[in-house]
């Protein structure tokens, strides 16, 4: 159990997919998000990542590995990502139409999110056991949500600050990402 908590904390903060691995940044750079949009998009990405990761583990362990078809891993994981993203879009459209209207252009990006694919392929490649996959499937989405909230706060702050013209937009967000990575790298070696 102690090891599982270390893996969970490690994927949440120390090995954050968006801040350390620089995957899944496509949603972070979207302009014009407020707090509610950022939180909804982050929770949607977290849900897609969690469901896809657990389904990928089951299919990889019980179907592809015994049949010797691990070469189909990427294709199966992409199909899982698209299906999970479609389920999230359908849920938001039916239950929260105001959030769906604000995010309808960004939600399809969830179906090809590199952070989700990275997690699915890494879990399959390392052939992790179920508790470890569960810990990474919870920690990585929460870490991505953490990065979304951080980027959202930075965007709000930058909207009212006097940023030099050369740094407006994406360049200043990348500078922020580098600073956040340096801050988080100070946690390396804790676990």
Automatic annotation (TrEMBL):
Where does this protein have coiled-coil stretches?
none
Record keyword Transmembrane present = yes
Taken from the UniProt entry, a GO cellular component term is: endomembrane system
Q: Which UniProt keywords apply?
A: Membrane, Translocase, Transmembrane, Transmembrane helix, Transport
Q: Which organism is it from?
A: Proteiniclasticum sediminis
Tell me which InterPro entries the record gives: NqrDE/RnfAE (IPR003667), NqrDE/RnfAE_oxidrdctase (IPR050133)
Specify one Pfam family: Rnf-Nqr
Organism's domain of life?
A: Bacteria
Keyword Secreted tagged: no
Q: What is this protein called?
A: Electron transport complex protein RnfA
| Transmembrane residue ranges | 39-59, 71-91, 103-121, 133-154, 166-187
The cellular location(s) given in this protein's UniProt record come to: Endomembrane system
Q: How does it sit in the membrane?
A: Multi-pass membrane protein
- Where this protein primarily resides, as one coarse class? membrane
